[in-house]
Structure formats: structure tokens, C-alpha cells
Amino acid sequence: MPPNLDKTLASVLSSRSSQGRLRRLTIPSPNSVDFSSNSYLSLSSNPAVKSAYLAFILPYLQSTESEAGFGLGSGGSRLLDGNSAFTEDLEGRIAKFHGADAGLLFNSGFEANTGLFACVPQKGDFIVYDELIHASVHDGMKLSRAKRIPFAHNTIYDGPETLGKDRPHSLDSLLRSLTEGTDSEDVTTGKKNIFIAVEGVYSMDGDAAPLKEIVECVEKRLPQGNGYIIVDEAHSTGIFGNQGRGLVCQLGLEDRIWGRVHTFGKAMGCSGAIVLCSSTARSYLINYARSFIYTTAMAFPSLASIRTTYDFLTQGHAEPLLQHLQSLIYHIHNLLSGIIQRHNPSPELFRINPETPQSPILPLLTGRARDLAQYCQERGFTVRPIVAPTVPAGEDRGGGRMGDGGCKM
Predict the structure, then answer these.
(1) Which of 293, 315, 337 marks a domain boundary?
(2) What does the record list as coiled-coil region(s) (predicted)?
(3) Could you say which of 315, 339, 363 is where a domain stops?
(4) In terms of domains, do 247 and 201 share one?
(5) Exposure string (b/e) for 179-216, b if CB count within 10 Å is 16 or more?
(6) pTM higher than 0.85 for the full model?
(7) Does residue 198 share a domain with residue 110?
(8) The domain that contains 303 carries what CATH number?
(9) In angstroms, rounded to a whole number, what is the distance separating the alpha carbons of residues 371 and 400?
């Protein structure tokens, strides 16, 4: 086979490497202090969770009945052989826990977002999204037939600080233009829908969405009820709200948010995701979400791990871990603030958000992300450089997450 394609690919990789943007797989050192993991509560390695998991699956291991039996694989997609009473019961349990009407499991948060945004918004609809929304939402929107418009990150209303800057408008100004423009009749009468895509907690900045203000703005500008808010709760699941129910539940907005995506690969310590929505929307996703239809369903071991961690939260066992996590967040922020006060580094070299963190994600903003990460790694701290295109060019940072059971960022 002629190596022409490999030469082309190697040239592209070389160009990225020369810009300091080349991604590489690494294996974390077991002896380092982990400031990179998304497992904020360390549930994946928690002895009590692991013991509960083993105790939960033991009866299934010993069962000879086909429906209750243990299988390493599901046998097919949910629409073929991959569905089970256990799966549907789990969806119902999770939906009830989060105060939702129904839920549909996906193999990952990425598949949940791509499936949801690709099929629900229709031609002529609009998707108004926060400029820092996750890549999976971008990929889902690209597959959609709806028009896409970004708004400035966490900016609901235009103010003096946003005027004249080369960045998207606020959410309010975009909704106002959609409802007051010359072609706005279909929007104002409710014939066309507007979907508003935000995250509960943003994975690169660690700040929470001003969700109450977003809801109030949408309801004010779209009184016909054709504004549908979708919240990606990947980084707020297990952390925010009573027993980790998420930001929507913490704010009591369950009945005013159209859809939520909760993922299990962060604080929940396992894998997979669920879209919480109405029972009608669930049926629609079963029929039209391609990332659900054309993939093998999660196997019982994965489903059992999700069930185990939700039981752990429901029974209140995670509360001490959450309290300890909060103490770690404040502790590391105070340490970093103290370093800056003592040494006064240039903002180009090292800076943080001086405000109290809203989540376990603490970005260290720097123009030398790779150097800073390497310096930390050589001293036994797992800190990863986060560079473009994951974050906007010029906004590199040393990605940090605080976690329970030790300093895990």
C-alpha cells in the first residue's frame, strides 16, 4: 500500500507538534498526587462502593435464570436483544432521583449529547448555546438541521463590560433579536422552537451556569413556551444539590428545564449517561437518536455499577465525602492565592480566579501550560496542560480538579 496517506497524516501531526498542540497518551504514575481526575468523590476506588458492587452482583452471578443472569455483554442494541427489565427499572430509578418524568440511558455523555442535539431540533428551529459548551454538543448541533447561534459565556444581559468586545452577544440580546426581527413571526407565535444549550458546571473554567437567570430570561422573551433549555450536568452530577442530584435540582428548576444530560464518568465514578426528559421525548429519542439506535447496549456490569453508586448517594453515604471535597477546594484555592500574594508572578506565567471556586475544577491560567505541567509532574503532581483546540487559543491552562480521598484534581 503506497504510504502517501501516512505522509500526509504525519505532516499534519508535525505541524501540530511544532505549535506545541500535539496530544499524546500517557499512563498516570500510581505514586503521584492526582490533580487531573474527574472522579471528584473517588467513588471508583471507594472500598465501601466496591464492596456494595460485589455484593449486588453476586446473586446475579449465581442465578441460572436468563433474565436475571449475569452477562459480560448485552447481546445487541436496546432495540434488538440488549434491553432488559433491569435497564428500564434503572432508568426509572434515576429519573425519580433527579425529579424527572423519564430517562433514557446512553453509553456515554458524548453519545447522549450528539444523539439528543442531532435529532430533536428541527429545520427552522434555533439552537442558542453558550460559547464554551462541550465538544459533544457542537458535534450534535452539526448533525442537526437547526440554525446555531452562540452567546457570550454565562452572559445573560448586555452590560458595559461586554459592549465593544469582539465576542458573541448576551443570551437576552439574541433572544430579543430572534423575537423582534423582521423574520420573527414563526418564533413569536411558537411555530419555531429555540433550544438553549448550557452546562451546569463548565469543564474548563469550573464555573456554574447562572441557571435561574437563564430560565427567567427565556421565559420572558419566549412567553409562548417554545424556549427549551437543555442542561449538561456532567460536572455537577454528584456534587451539586441534595445527595448530588445536580444544579437543576439544587435550584428547584426541575419543571422549568426541558432536558438534562447526567453523566456517570465524573463524580459518579463509573461510565455512561442518561437523558432526562418527558416520556414523549424519551420515545422520540428511541426512534430517532442514532447514537442510541445503532450501538450495543450497556452490559450488566456497567448497569450494576451505576445502580450501586446511585444507591450510595441515595443512602446518604456520600455526604462526608462531599464535605471533605469542599474543604479540599477551599484549601487548595487558599494555597494558590497565597503563592500569588507572596511571589507576585506575572499574569502570563500564572494566575487564578480570585473568587471562591464554585466547583472542584480550578484552572491555573498560564501562557506556559506545558512547562508548568511538566514542572509539576516532575515533582510528583499529575497536572495536565489544557491547550487549544480544547480551549480557545491564548487561554491555555493547567487543568486541575480537586477530589476526595486525597488531592485529586
Answers:
(1) 315
(2) none
(3) 315
(4) yes
(5) beeeeeeebbeeebbbbbbbbbbbbbbbbbbebeebbe
(6) yes
(7) yes
(8) 3.40.640.10
(9) 15
Domain co-membership, 199 together with 90: yes
- Tell me, yes or no, whether 55 lies in a domain: no
Cβ atoms within 10 A of the Cβ of 379, count? 10
Q: Where are the beta strands (DSSP E) in 176-246?
A: 194-199, 227-232
User: Within 10 Å of residue 49's Cβ, how many Cβ atoms?
Assistant: 23
Residue 67 to residue 153: CA distance in whole angstroms: 47
Domain residues for the domain of 366 are 23-40+318-408
Q: How far is CA 105 from CA 124, 273, 307, 311, in A?
A: 28, 6, 12, 17
- Cα 314 to Cα 318: distance, rounded to the nearest angstrom: 9
* Backbone torsions φ then ψ of 340, nearest 5 degrees: -65, -40
Q: Is 68 exposed, middle or buried, given 0-12, 13-18 or 19+ CB atoms closer than 10 A?
A: middle
At 149, list the grid cell.
447561534
22 grid coordinates: 500535539
Nearest to 408 by CA among 267, 292, 249, 228: 267
Q: Looking at residue 207, what is its pLDDT?
A: 95
| 307 residue type, one letter | R
Residue 115 CA: distances (Å) to CA of 77, 140, 273: 15, 6, 12
Residue whose grid cell is 494555597: 335
User: Is residue 262 helix, strand or coil?
Assistant: strand
Q: Residue 164 class from Cβ within 10 Å (0-12 exposed, 13-18 middle, 19+ buried)? A: exposed
Whether 391 is in a domain gets the answer yes
Task: Give the separation between CA 120 and CA 143, rounded to whole angstroms.
Answer: 11
Average pLDDT, the chain: 90
- What is the length of the chain? 409
For the segment 8-52, what is each residue's pLDDT rounded down to a tens digit?
999 999 998 888 788 888 887 888 888 888 999 999 999 999 999
Q: Quick one: cell of 75?
A: 447481546
